[in-house]
Specification:
- The protein is of the alpha/beta class and about 220 residues long.
- It has six helices and six strands, in the order βαβαβαααβαββ.
- Strands 3-2-4-1-5-6 form a six-stranded mixed β-sheet.
- The protein is globular, with a radius of gyration of 17 Å.
């Protein structure tokens, strides 16, 4: 499915999406697949969003959106402070469900589920994690909801605070990358991505940016 904003005759003003990954999680681990586990932010994760909020203070936002997982929702609440734009929870933007793998590290998954992990590497797009989702499942719930927001905010800017998997799906669609290349896109804790949606195409302005890069976009 190709995402497109509704055609705006005679206008080149895009709809801008500020796409952010949640901050560092409370356990401090970068190698665990938390998925739908509702883990909160660490103190550093909160600071990451306070810094990001300061950098974005002068950017007008017509909407602030977050998944229903607290690590994203807390970050969105920080971004929204002092703004009139409402904060809205979008359950479709929660992270991919890792099923039996949730809470495990990559090493633990490789040890306990070697056959399933190999099968996933052979078919990243459609392999469904035991008890969880495939990347195609994730894409099928994320992209239609994103398209709704783009059409709701034509020629405006809004921010989404979500997760690494969700962000990669959105960026892959904008860049025209197949889902099996999704992991070529890095998404650090608290990173910022910027995508402009024109009537017939998306232009990715920033990928995996730190807060110091916000002023340049």
């Amino acid at each position: 499915m190709r995402l497109q904003a509704q055609r705006i005759k005679g206008s080149l003003t895009p709809t801008r999406v500020y796409l952010v990954r949640h901050g560092q999680v409370a356990d401090g681990h970068t190698d665990r697949y938390h998925g739908n586990n509702d883990i909160g932010l660490s103190d550093n994760g909160v600071r990451q969003f306070e810094d990001l909020a300061a950098q974005l203070a002068g950017v007008p936002l017509a909407g602030v959106y977050a998944s229903n997982l607290s690590r994203a929702l807390t970050g969105a609440e920080i971004i929204r402070r002092g703004r009139e734009a409402p904060l809205q929870i979008i359950p479709e933007f929660r992270e991919i469900h890792f099923g039996a793998w949730e809470g495990l590290s990559f090493t633990e998954i490789a040890e306990r589920y070697p056959a399933e992990l190999e099968a996933r590497f052979r078919d990243l797009a459609t392999f469904r994690i035991p008890g969880g989702e495939s990347l195609l499942d994730l894409s099928s719930r994320v992209l239609p909801r994103l398209n709704d927001l783009i059409n709701q905010h034509l020629q405006e800017a809004f921010i989404i605070v979500a997760h690494a998997g969700v962000n990669r799906v959105i960026l892959s669609e904008a860049l025209g990358l197949p889902l099996d290349h999704l992991f070529r896109l890095d998404q650090n804790y608290g990173c910022l991505n910027v995508i402009d949606y024109f009537p017939d195409m998306a232009v990715v302005r920033l990928v995996n940016g730190g807060v110091n890069g916000v002023a340049a976009v």
